[in-house]
Amino acid sequence: MSRIAGVFAALRDQGRQALIPFVTAGDPEPSATLPLMHAMVAAGADIIELGVPFSDPMADGPVIQRASERALQHHVSLRDVIGLVRRFREINDRTPVVLMGYLNPLEIMGYEAFAEAAAAAGVDGVLTVDIPPEEGERFVPVMKAQGIDPIFLLAPTSNRARIERITAAASGFVYYVSLKGVTGAANLSLDSVRDKVAEIRACTDLPVGVGFGIKDAQTAAAMAGFADAVVVGSALVSRIEANPRDMATATGEITAMLAEMRAAMDRGK
Amino acid sequence: MQNNEIRLTDLPDEHGHFGPYGGIFVAETLMEPLDELRIAYERYLQDPEFLAELDADLQHYVGRPSPIYHAERLSRELGGAQIYLKREDLNHTGAHKINNTVGQALLAKRMGKTRIIAETGAGQHGVASATVAARLGLECVVYMGEVDVARQEANVYRMRLLGAEVRSVSSGSKTLKDALNEAMRDWVTNVDNTFYIIGTVAGPHPYPAMVRDFQAVIGREARAQIQTMTGRLPDALVACVGGGSNAIGLFYPFLDDSDVTIYGVEAAGDGIETGHHAAPLCAGKPGVLHGNRTYLMEDSDGQIIETHSISAGLDYPGVGPEHAWLKDSGRANYVAITDDEALAAFHRLTRTEGIIPALESSHAIAQALKLAPTMRPDQTLLVNLSGRGDKDMHTVAAREGLKI
């Protein structure tokens, strides 16, 4: 069983949901990320989403755009991010790591070269924002051949036919984008998310994660009422931005927020 | 030609692919809206009522057909091929951009969208979008990089006069590519009521095909006009290529005419060898950006790199996917012209023919200046004069140390 499947199976047995923090690798500088990953696991993270910096992050709001810009000032590359995961695995062999980013760095590295290097380093999944299954006919089998789960987005605009097509291509889990907008937006509607997650569940047995626009413990707990995983990104990354020269404070604020979300999600269980 | 051979004019395929290029590389939220757009575009491009309305607008509002003009004095000086100019500079708003915005705005109206958004570099597409929005009573927001807002003040003011809101984009390199990113972010957020008018033949399917189809009026007219004037097809076509919409508009109706040589002219900026240029077809490699696979200016990590051209309209790190395929298939030749060569051509056309070309179009003129002397006087060269140079007065004057 893959690490991702193992985590979801264990949580299901406990009646709990996964908490998935997102941070951009190399933000605000390369040495900050590894200690932050370990700290997030200690604070209750079940899976880590590691952002691969890209010059043109079209699906991201301003907070994660600026995180990418900070990392790129240090020329953090896809190979550097894979290297970070390898070092993370020296200490932690159980927490799944999903790389999240855009297609072009993978295109340039080559799908096969990427998949081999990422699998060898201990990467568990890859979420490439701008490759729908229609364009993934070569991409998906190359990832799966190395045991890397291709994780796809579903959106409020995805109709039934698309949900079926995407869940057929995906493995690990599917990621429901909870709103029409970019990461970190503010127009979240709980009821419509609940309805759509139910529609997705009718098409697949894969775990369903929900993300985009989850800012606090209360929202995270509400989402955990019907989803299998809650992804939080901009709310955490904004702590790094608020403490540009003080990673200790940023890490403290991030882990406090995660611990609060974890507690709220587990309350009454 | 064998039956199983795919004709270039039949592309893209149903998934928006031109060979390995094009396609749809966007976040899931936009897949359904793009499909809705594709269906509407396919339907209305077969709809006689829509086409009649489009034709009427192109005639009475844009001022089509634009003439072709025999640049006799310039041709005589060069002592080679006869140079003919397709006068897109005479269109309403001063460039070819309006052909596309008129078409997309009519489509937006048919689809019941009440708000349009656009990205712009030099401001020409922004002005053309604001213009049609004003006429149709649609709300209009134009995204423009902070750097471009500063260097194209006059166009920013024009857009505001026309009632558009110009939003300055301060992320990334603060130029056209970042304006496009921001427009995509707006679209993903306001997808229910908003139509995104992309200004060039790039972006996810169906944009490259749709923008080409709206711009192909240039080549259809020119193909008939030049035959009336000279009795035959031209020997070569020349057009500048940023994203490549004016070029594909001229080239497309000639793709099956294998005797017509095609030249697309990219911006070599300070020179290809300096790295300061905007010539992905001549010096870049394939990748994925802004919804399509195409040639890009990128580093070895796959990050998009900043471009340079004296002409803001060519200052873009990608290029339309159809051009990428025309390059690989060998149907078209892509060359590059430096800032200095473009400026020299700008002055030469102005002094010789009394026509002030846009700096973008000056790149095409510069290539014609090189080609014509290598050809015979009974041969013809058809150059797309895609825009007029009024917007570039400040840039040209500044290069000469003048402030106007």
For the structure shown, list the relevant keywords.
heterodimer, A: alpha/beta, TIM Barrel, nine-stranded parallel beta sheet, 12 helices, B: 404 residues, alpha/beta, seven-stranded mixed beta sheet, four-stranded antiparallel beta sheet, 16 helices
Written overview of the protein:
The complex is a heterodimer of chains A (269) and B (404). Chain A is α/β, with parallel strands linked by helices and 269 residues long. Chain A is built from 12 helices and 9 strands. Chain A has a single domain (3-263), classed as TIM Barrel. Helix content of chain A is 49%, strand content 13%. In chain A, strand 1, helix 2 and strand 2 form a beta-alpha-beta unit. In chain A, helix 3 (62-73) crosses helix 11 (234-242) and helix 10 (217-224) packs parallel to helix 12 (247-266). Chain B is an alpha/beta fold and 404 residues long. Chain B has helices at 31-44, 48-62, 72-78, 97-110, 124-136, 146-151, 153-161, 176-189, 207-215, 217-230, 245-251, 280-283, 321-328, 339-353, 359-371, 393-399, and strands at residues 17-18, 21-25, 68-70, 82-87, 115-120, 139-145, 165-169, 194-197, 236-240, 261-271, 276-278, 285-289, 291-296, 333-338, 380-385. In chain B, a hairpin with a 2-residue loop joins strand 1 (17-18) and strand 2. In chain B, helix 9 packs across helix 11 (245-251). Chain B is globular. The model of chain B has no long low-confidence stretch (mean pLDDT 96). The chains are: A alpha/beta (269), B alpha/beta (404). The interface between A and B is large, with 48 and 39 residues.
